[in-house]
């Protein structure tokens, strides 16, 4: 292959500073080193976590960087020792790695992986603790080990899932983050049983995927809570059976839900990233067994609180990263489920744009009508 072993110059959306519009730049992407994979990104979506880091509120946010972590593409070349993927393979980059060898991977108790996390958290690759991206010699940081807002990116081999080549990349890119997170929060983290009463705070992509997962788990009532009543109509298609807008009530929302459900819900999910709502989500759970799962990402400096009595009396507070799915093993399975029409993906895509329209895509994220915006990266 002509580009193998060569530096590739391509376009990427570079975040030079927090909160400043991204700039489409020509970037140099170095060849993959040992244990690394260079991927041609065909499609990427935007997730609220990209906007969160761009806002400057992420303690791990480093600038200048190339954001993006919900994408699909084709392997261009691989570094020494890479055996599980080869050029031409269709892949989804995975911000949560899976090495199958570390203490975390071996534990069977978590989907977190420790192999490359220290490097991905500071925007570099493990091998030499350097970035593979540069502009005229100036290094540009990686983000979440994925940096999919570039036409080419370099990822660790433990951070890439090989998928069915027949799967449409412009759709399955969503399986890199938001949709699996919601489904897995229900199936893996909470393990919702049939007949359960579920409350979902926040009806964006993640909350709707929670609803989809809860419906598949045969929850008896799926209560959607959002401050934007326009969210309610669409949410019905994902399985939400009842709606509550906290703005319509004088009582605290946890009390409203306790009253609505004869003592509280069996499971609640916070899909916003608001620490006050996290408290409400815990406190609307049923005494003795109700479990609340934190999915939303809260800004640096934010802390959660409740009366310890809430936990003493049997409520359980949990959190989830990527819905508890083991990325390399289970993303291909989710792609297969999509191909068999067992899970929705297309329904979450409300907008399609191109790489040069990246800033417009960020603007759309703040509009209520937008779930996921997919960017064609090769335009
Ligand atoms: N844990 C993980 O692995 C993981 C993965 C993906 C995303 N996330 C996080 O999940 C969160 C949700 O992501 P999303 O893409 O669905 O976001 P989103 O912005 O599309 O959805 C959030 C929803 O919450 C609603 N909302 C805001 N404030 C509210 C309030 N006080 N009460 C009720 N509703 C309120 C909004 O109207 C919106 O509908 C984000 O914080 C994101 O960073 C976490
Ligand atoms: N860097 C942030 C934390 C961000 C965070 O919690 N990320 C989630 C995924 S959000 C995807 O949209 C996650 O999986 N975290 C686990 C991990 O990063 O290993 C901060 O420091 O606040
Ligand atoms: Zn995400
Ligand atoms: Zn591992």
UniProtKB/TrEMBL annotation:
It is found in: Cytoplasm. GO terms for molecular function: alcohol dehydrogenase (NAD+) activity; S-(hydroxymethyl)glutathione dehydrogenase [NAD(P)+] activity; zinc ion binding. It catalyses: S-(hydroxymethyl)glutathione + NAD(+) = S-formylglutathione + NADH + H(+); a primary alcohol + NAD(+) = an aldehyde + NADH + H(+); S-(hydroxymethyl)glutathione + NADP(+) = S-formylglutathione + NADPH + H(+); a secondary alcohol + NAD(+) = a ketone + NADH + H(+). GO terms for biological process: formaldehyde catabolic process. GO terms for cellular component: cytosol. Its main location: cytoplasm. Residues 34-163 form the Alcohol dehydrogenase-like N-terminal domain. This is S-(hydroxymethyl)glutathione dehydrogenase.
